[in-house]
Amino acid sequence: MVFFMATIGERIAELRKQKSMTQEEFAAIVGVSAKSVSKWENNTNMPDIMLLPIIADTFGVTVDMLYGRRSSPCSATSSDAVFDAAYRSVCQVILSACGGADNFNEPFLEIEKLDNYVERMKSNKKLRSTVIHPHGVVYLRDEIGEIALKRPEKGWSSLLTDAGAEEILNMLIDRDFRNALQTVIKNNMTSFTLSSLCTMCGISDSDALEENFIKSKLFLVKQVNIDGENVKVYELFGVQRVILLFAILTYAKEYSDYEDCYWIYYGDSRFCSGD
């Protein structure tokens, strides 16, 4: 039982014993020496603030609980208004393109017609709509959202031999990388050491994982001095890049689950021929 008047070191000792860990085992997971753990538990030293999220994740508690504060549930909710507006705008572009519109900034559609189209797309999750244009493609399915791709300057086929794209695909092929990234995101891990993350994920090859972390450019690495030893602490900071990875994986799944079920298909199916 962890008492809320205890020090952080005393809470660490209590939580470690609840997990039936030795100081050496706990130290190996966090990525520090057993000597450092002993100093924490004896209140000789305090853990570096960068290590607190790692320690909390190891025990499955919050940082607030390490400090002795009871966490209050968050009741904030987010609005879908921005997403809905974007979805509706793409629906308008698709319908307008089918009607021959050249200026999408001007009202072109009857509201009722647009409402009916939006309702139809939302009522059947299998329905797809695509507009193919010499300069790009617009794709829509309610369950995943919408995407507008501009034709690469060197043509669509140039993507198939792009070295940068190949490197990212090879990175995503690695199951350990995907499992580790999922663990970091799912558990909202603000910081971690490779040893603590590998323990959580059951990953044995930490060197390969570190190499992919470097390639991904998703993580900030800081050196934290703990009792004279430098410990690498990782922080997820490339959220914008994570969004792009989600887009890649979303459409990889869309490709895998593809069904030829269209409500609108407008354009030339030979759009990428000879490009």
Descriptive report:
The chain has helices at 8-18, 23-30, 34-41, 52-59, 63-67, 81-98, 111-123, 163-173, 175-186, 194-201, 206-216, 239-256; strands at 128-133, 136-141, 145-150, 219-226, 229-236, 262-266. The protein is α+β, with helices and mostly antiparallel strands and 275 residues long. The N and C termini lie far apart (68 Å).
Write a concise synopsis of the structure shown.
The protein has 275 residues and is an alpha+beta fold. It contains 12 helices and 6 strands.
Helix content: 40-55%
Q: How many strands?
A: 6
Morphology: elongated
Trace the largest sheet across and list its strands. 3-2-1-6
What's the number of helices?
12
Give unreliable regions as ranges: 73-77, 103-108
Number of domain modules: 3
Q: Return the average pLDDT rounded to an integer.
A: 85
Order of helices and strands: HHHHHHHEEEHHHHEEHE
Report on the biggest sheet. 4 strands, mixed
Q: Which oligomeric state applies?
A: single chain
Radius of gyration: 25 Å
User: What structural class results from the helix and strand content?
Assistant: alpha+beta
Our estimate of the beta-strand percent is 5-15%
Q: Distance between the terminal alpha carbons, to the nearest Å?
A: 68 Å
SSE order and pairing:
Layout: H1 8-18, H2 23-30, H3 34-41, H4 52-59, H5 63-67, H6 81-98, H7 111-123, E1 128-133, E2 136-141, E3 145-150, H8 163-173, H9 175-186, H10 194-201, H11 206-216, E4 219-226, E5 229-236, H12 239-256, E6 262-266
Parallel strand pairs: 1-6
Antiparallel strand pairs: 1-2, 2-3, 4-5
